[in-house]
Amino acid sequence: MPGPAPRAASTRQVRAQHVLFMQAVELDITRVDSIRRVAAELIERFPALNVLVNNAGIMPFDDASAAIDDTVAQAIIDTNLLGPVRMTSALIGHLKRQPRAVVLHNTSVLAYVPLAGNAVYSATKAALHAYALSQRFMLRKTSVRVQEIAPPWVDTDLIHQNGDPRAMPPRDFIEQTMRELASDREEVTVEAVRPLRDNPGAGKHAFFNAFNEQLEADPIPVA
Ligand SMILES: NC(=O)c1ccc[n+]([C@@H]2O[C@H](COP(=O)([O-])OP(=O)(O)OC[C@H]3O[C@@H](n4cnc5c(N)ncnc54)[C@H](OP(=O)(O)O)[C@@H]3O)[C@@H](O)[C@H]2O)c1
Q1: Rounded distance between C-alpha atoms, residue 22 and residue 15, angstroms
Q2: Which of 52, 67, 140, 187 has CA 20 to 30 A from 177's CA?
Q3: Which pLDDT tens digit goes with each residue over 146-193?
Q4: Ligand 1, from 34, 54, 158: best to mutate by most atoms within 8 Å of Cβ?
Q5: What is the 50 CA–ligand 1 centroid distance (Å)?
Q6: pLDDT tens digits, one per residue of 68-85
């Protein structure tokens, strides 16, 4: 599981590369003190800040048919669900004072069709989707819009980047997603996984079983 050491290194890397208009602040989304400190620093340094992208996530495998390691379950919930809730909460007052603002949540297509071998991860993404719906409703008369990206399997290091042909290359994913985001859609899903997003009510269990049997027969590769 990623820890503070690589995070500090990537923060240093962004700073060292002097990427135009890009600055890095180190945040541990699982820690309330870190969220408060970073939110206060951001508001002070960037008073026109009007976009929050809740992107951090971890995806350890689990086994819901057996005892689940509590530390791992807690880390998944803290990172994927409480992290975005706390981060939004720390910035929402500031965002509402901006003429236009956006909160963007990164969920997953697994919010709609859970991957059985990542039961807690899938549950956190379903919960984040539900939270985004409620938040959008509650903010509908303010200047803050809430958008959700529900990515498919993208070939990143979330599990193990290895060029698996079933995973979408990051470049293609970014290209399609940025196009959709520009359309102001509330929810952005790439074309290839719309059937998973539209996983129908009455047919849900058969669809879910078929999806999981397929991935059990040909699992996601790990490092
Ligand atoms: N790749 C996919 O197939 C896929 C599919 C659906 C949804 N998603 C979602 O997309 C988002 C980005 O994932 P990715 O695919 O780009 O994977 P990734 O390369 O592993 O990126 C995950 C990011 O989350 C950060 N992070 C993890 N724990 C954190 C913490 N406690 N505090 C602050 N940052 C933390 C990581 O920072 P460090 O490197 O510093 O730890 C890293 O930047 C996640 O929410 C993931 O669930 C991905």
Answers
A1: 8
A2: 140
A3: 999 999 999 999 998 999 999 999 999 999 999 999 887 999 999 988
A4: 158
A5: 22
A6: 999 999 999 999 999 999
What are the structural domains, with CATH classification, of the chain?
Answer: 47-217 (3.40.50.720)
Cα 167 to chain center, whole Å? 17
DSSP characters for 163-185? --TTSBPHHHHHHHHHHHHHTT-
CB under 8 Å to 217, separation ≥6 — which residues? none
CB crowding 38-57: b at 16 or more within 10 Å, else e: bbeebbeeeeebbebebebb
Which residues does the annotation mark as catalytic? 121
Please name the residue that has the structure tokens 């980047």. 161
CB 96 within 8 A of CB 142: yes
Parallel, antiparallel or unpaired: strands 51-54 and 187-188: unpaired
Residue with CA closest to ligand 1 atom 45: 57
